[in-house]
Predict the 3D structure of the following.
Amino acid sequence: MSPTKHSVVPAGSRPTGQVTFLGAGPGDPGLLTLRAVEVLSAADVLVADPLTAAAVRLHCPAGVELHDAGADGFALDGAFGGDGAAAITRLFPAVQAGRHVVRTVDGDPGLDGRAAEEMLACAQAGIPFQVVPGVAQSVGVPAYAGVPLRAGAGTDVRFVDASHCAPDAYDWSNLGGCDATLVVRTRLSSLPLSATALVASGRKPDTPVSVTLEGTTTRQRTYTATLATLAAELKAARVLPSPVSAPVNPASCVIAVVGEQVTSRPTLSWFETKPLFGWNILVPRTKDQAGALSEQLRSYGAVPSEVPTIAVEPPRTPQQMERAIKGLVTGRYEWIAFTSVNAVKAVREKFEEYGLDARAFAGIKVAAVGETTSQALVDFGVKPDLVPTGEQSAAGLLEDWPLYDPVFDPIDRVLLPRADIATETLVAGLVELGWEVDDVTAYRTVRASPPPAETREAIKGGGFDAVIFTSSSTVRNLVGIAGKPHNVTVIACIGPATAKTAEEHGLRVDVLAPAPSVAALAEALADFGAARRDAATQAGEQVYRPSERRPGSRRKAR
């Protein structure tokens, strides 16, 4: 019925709700498309498949209404069940009220799962919907496994979804006699019967096969065999149920590739061969400073867990800092020296409180203890005049610091905003060079609250493969709030002083950074992990991560 004259809704105020079917990729959060991130940021209601749920939620508004597709009756794929067509209809009132419902699918909506049923339900009910494609599991997983699907013109590739079938129900007869590369999405428990069926249908028993579990994630594992040996290989790897153990859910979906392209994997495997692939690494730093280090560790294939051990708080008496900022503006100082990112942050916050910006540093020489602190200053709009050319520490800064010269230096005073527990090395060195120093407490460092019980148990029980210590205080505070890391855990320290503190707490230091920077420390740990992996490979072992070794069996890579 047409709206009456009195029921006309003004233009631009009608509800514009819709459903977006969004491909969230095969598991790696980095495979979300730019369009996907844009759509998620405008979601009112989110219905997420389980594999990528945590990743997509990070891009949603704070007040988004959350639904778990695995628990709310959506079809997902054959390994789960449920009636997606019926479940999606429960959200139609939200769409009709003008809300944006985003339905994320693991992989691609058109190829993975059974989102087509939900789309059809929307179309039949007149509910507006759109589709945002994603990286399909059958494409992304082989790429991460180092198995190219095509080797030039004429190569035939066929995608098979047998995940919704019982192990003996899929008809392989039309695929056994072809030479195409088969990309099979199926249940792990179905693989032995599927391989047997392919051979019975005409495929050669020696046809190469790769099987990838938890593809594109840092838990990815790929096994290679032939159709004839597949079952035995998976049982030997303790992936399929056997009299020894069955640690992997045999009903979980995997991606298998059947064909000669699998032979390229030893040469093209790039993901699982990263130096710290799959390593769980504890990063005990202040929360604000852990991001760059964690990102670097991820680039090496690691899984960083950020556990704050230090909390940064304002000084108990702010008057000293207030006087210092006033003196900086009125020309009391020739130099200001920053020994940490936190010092830069403390001064910047005071500037913002007083309505100042980087222009207040005009006419003042600025020193930074190292590259990280220097970058924090650059981000503030200040280019340091002095950064150590050698060791990035207070001692290195003193090596390059000029003597006070009354002819060239009209002012003999240095402002040093620091932590309340900072050492006196820099102050004493500057005084010896002829400078007067205003040593000001810009912030306090206090011990953070203990991490959750699960994290504490993992630290003490060997659940982490490595711990990265970036200062002596992180060593003391971690041991104080969570206990001493297990003996199998690799200990990496940023410098000799931190290593000494670690040893005083009974820890064996495995990795020492060649330079006192977090980037150099992460790189040194990656080199250690690569050497460990090479040693294990040469010894014919399949255990690369320290936490996979039983206590007492740990051997150190040289």
About this structure: The chain has four domains: 17-135, 139-268, 280-309+449-548, 313-447. Residues 518-538 form the longest helix (21 residues). The chain is about 30% helix and 20% strand.
